[in-house]
Amino acid sequence: MAAPTFEVPKLKEVSEVPRIQKGAMAHTKSYVASAAIQQAIGFPGELVENWEEKAIEKMGDLLSKYRSFKVYLDACVHCGACTDKCHYFLGTGDPINMPVARQDLVRNVYRRHFTFAGKYFPKLVGAKDLTRDVLDQWYTYYNQCSECRRCSVFCPYGIDTAEITMGAKEILDSIGYGQKYTNEIIGKVQRIGNNLGLPGPALQDTLEGLEEDIEAETGVAVRMPLNQKGAEVLLVTPSADFFSEPHVESLIGYAKVFHAAGISWTLSSHASEAGNFGLFIGNYETMRNIALRIREAALELGVKRIIVGECGHAWRVAYSFWNTLAGIGAGGNDPFSIELQQQLDPRYPAPQHICEFTYDLLKRGVITVDKSTNDHRVITYHDSCNVARASRMGDMPGGQFVIPREIIKMVANNYHDMAADTIHESTFCCGGGGGLLTDDLMELRVKGALPRMEALNNVVQDHQVNFMATICAICKAQFSKVLPYYGFEMGMVGGIHQLVSTAIQLGPKQ
Ligand code: SF4
Ligand code: SF4
User: Fold this and answer.
1) 293-335, pLDDT tens digit by residue?
2) Gap between the Cα atoms of 130 and 112, Å rounded
3) Of 76, 104, 106, 165, best ligand 1 pocket probe by most atoms within 8 Å of the beta carbon
4) Is 69 within 8 Å of 163 (Cβ atoms)?
5) Cα–Cα distance between 291 and 361 in angstroms, integer?
6) Predicted confidence (pLDDT) per residue in 195-232, tens digit
7) Among the listed residues 411, 405, 367, the one whose alpha carbon sits nearest the alpha carbon of residue 258
8) Which atom of ligand 1 is nearest to the CA of 429?
9) Distance from the CA of 152 to the center of ligand 1, in angstroms?
């Protein structure tokens, strides 16, 4: 880890609301997308000439399409309940990182152009013109929101800042002012099939290498099939699972589960990415284009079930949007959606989370484990925002909180939750979600991780926790990077299927 060029916050036993530091993060501006990156995904290459007019036009378009956007902009009474709920405010003290202040950047312009009072008495209601300074502030501070939705849990009106952030990003993209990191990745997945730009033959090689590793370690020939027509299950997983640590350990875990259960499965080189960054930029057309690759792969391979690997925002898109975007689950009524619905086995949820799948197998005793193999670990669980607050799992209320914890307790003996106000729906973001997992935002990422690091530190001190499990590829990558800034080992974070992988019994070694 290079020496930080900023001050890393000190961990406290009880989280404190920071002293306000005006402009503390104004210097942190994520890299702007180049013309080539923008144009590759259908946005203007650079700021268009009449950008103010176009931005207001786009705002009007969003207001007419999405009622929630208008309600969220109208409903805020500035009660202040959300002010100390954002990890980026808690970590930086920058007042514009308070959710209500972040919302107001758009709200002020909305009032100026779309409300009577704002048009005629702008000063009275805080309405503002969209000047270049305001536009730059939008870019800076909407790229400091991970769209985690924590603030919405505490808002008495349920105002979701994430929706406003997505709206702002959609407007910025439409006038040629997009973010490099997110838009470059969207281009790769549209062109090649995954966020990493990993082509099919390279993926095949990687999977074969992993098969050899597993066999060398266990003596068992566990397969990782690619493009296997007629397989029962299509597994769609974040591409980080193919090569990043600790992600790959979970991929190995999924493969062992399929092997032990005797269920045929396949990955697809066409749909080798569960992640869908279209969500982060609030662009439903992009989200749909990415989701359609999965439908195409499912139809081509003739699978009966679609299972999603450990990825937070991917699960949100799959659970909440795949049905209407791509006809995976009841929803779409175009011929391809209908064909897919007829093809998929109605006895299983479409889509299904890998944790639901494994939990069911464990409960029914289809796969067996030796919990003592995880005895070197004292485990806690980090609820990822998009799983906790934007989706569900299984057929029970709160299944997204229960199932992952139940799996951990079924495969390991030592488990401790972090403080109640930092888990379940009150969970803190890892600090790298929503398209902010880029090195040009490292200061923001480290500081934004503070509340989670404090909660983790408390269970480390009280219970000697040495492993934080999570089911999100972004959380895994973010924590691997920021844990050392707070004096923890980067290997402390890992997936639930990493724990399953350790404990699962595949048969005797040969
Ligand atoms: S959605 Fe999350 S990151 Fe964005 S303002 Fe709310 S708490 Fe902060
Ligand atoms: S809690 Fe809701 S109503 Fe209150 S200031 Fe925040 S966004 Fe506005």
Assistant:
1) 999 999 999 999 999 999 999 999 999 999 999 989 887 888 9
2) 9
3) 165
4) yes
5) 28
6) 777 888 999 999 999 999 999 999 999 999 999 999 99
7) 367
8) 2
9) 8
